[in-house]
Amino acid sequence: MFTALREDGTMLNLLTIQDKDSLQLIRRSSFFCPECEGKLLLKMGDKKTPHFAHENRHLCTGSGESESTYHLEGKMDLFKKVQALGLKPELEPFYPEIKQRADVGFCYKNIHYVIEFQCAIISAKHFIKRTEGYKKLNITPIWILGFKNFKKWAPLKMKWSSFIFLFLNNYKEHFILTAYCPHQKRCYFHVNPHPITLSQSFLTSFQLPLSQLEKWQDSILAPNKWYITHWRESIHQQKNFHLHYLTKQNQLFLKEIYGLGLHPHFFPPFIGIPLLNGLLLETPPIFWQSYIFIDTFFSTKKNKIYPLQKIYEVFHARIIKGDIKLRLLPLLPSKDWKWAIKEYLQILITLSILEEVKEGFYRLIKKIDMVNNYKAQGEIEKKFYDQLKSINLKGETICNDIL
After folding, report:
1. CA distance 155 to 203
2. In this structure, are residues 371 and 378 in contact, taking their beta carbons and an 8 Å threshold?
3. C-alpha–C-alpha distance, residues 142 and 172, integer Å
4. Rounded Cα distance, 50 and 11, in Å
5. pLDDT, tens only, 271-323
6. Residue 332: which residues within 8 A CB-CB, separation 6 or more?
7. Are strands 186-195 and 200-209 parallel, antiparallel or unpaired?
8. Architecture of domain 62-222 in CATH?
9. Region of 311 on the Ramachandran plot (φ > 0 left; ψ -120 to 50 alpha; else beta)
10. Range(s) for CATH 3.40.1350.10 in the chain?
């Protein structure tokens, strides 16, 4: 940390001290943690950023997280950037009512914000506790992920852990995750991930130097592109290969669909399509969209009407049973799994597979061709994806270009 209490109760900010001689002089004084009041040590060196550290860390009632040089540098960068914007930030503000210390605090248009630059992996429970703590004080937390948590970065497809998904937020109908790298002095923005497996998502990513952070909104609101060819190839791999791996989920799934006379190789192509709200579900789209199909639309009755409430009920039963798992997204409390279902049904309407006969009631208007040979299946899928490419939903331009 960069701030500490002196013996007289005043606060010292190390960022206000520029020369080493002054640091050496104050090093002889005693300093204390604003949270636990435990004794702090001033650490400094030729390569080490001057900072305070607990003499006995485990006694602190605060976050319990030891700060790395990576974290300290990032916190310092973000503080100075907010300061450069003229917002008069506070470094490491402590809130005794909730016993939490943020990295940076500031006010903008009469709204109190805090920045949490999170580098170490913490539990979802701790993440939620800190978020709810700030909200109790009418403070809006801005969670920024330490870029080092990405094992591999790519502009099109990335692998995210459940921890990384905790940082997903929304901005003007876009889902966004922000990360920062203090080594590169760059901010990374990840927009509208479309999960295709438990951990892999297609998305739009871009980066900005910290010095140009003000431009982030323009980049977010620009049309986002990702590439449907790659999605189709991945779904094809899942249907023809990955579903046959010996996992408990696969075995239970295959047993059920085989019992209905279905085969994953010849699923209708609208099973496993990309959806913006699909990230609300941890279960991959090929599974949960299959369940909607077999629980609702897999029927020989013509002109059957399907109430939306009934679709919700059978889907919820799958959740209770454990066939479908929800993704934990604490920064998106207003979103739930019903958004994904409603979006899926809307796309089926756009593709002229369903019609909404009246609000909340659906009917199949297109015969579902169930083929049993690969050539015919390939032709059906090609025609379907050509149609899907022409759809522009929620600002997402689905492209067929190769990077």
Report:
1. 7
2. no
3. 16
4. 16
5. 999 999 999 999 999 999 999 999 998 875 777 899 999 999 999 999 999 99
6. 168, 169, 170, 175, 280
7. antiparallel
8. 3-Layer(aba) Sandwich (3.40)
9. alpha
10. 62-222
Can you tell me which residue has the tokens 């309407």? Answer: 349
123: how many CB neighbours lie within 10 A of its CB? 10
Burial of 321 (0-12, 13-18, 19+ CB in 10 A): exposed
The residue behind tokens 């779904």 is: 235
Tokens 């009632």, located at residue = 61
Both structure tokens of 125:
């429970």
Handedness of CA 10, 14, 16, 21 (dihedral sign): positive
* pTM for this entry: 0.85
Per-residue DSSP letter, 298: -
**Can you read off the two tokens belonging to residue 204?**
């739009």
User: Which tokens is 271 given?
Assistant: 């099973």
Residue 254: Cβ within 10 Å count:
15
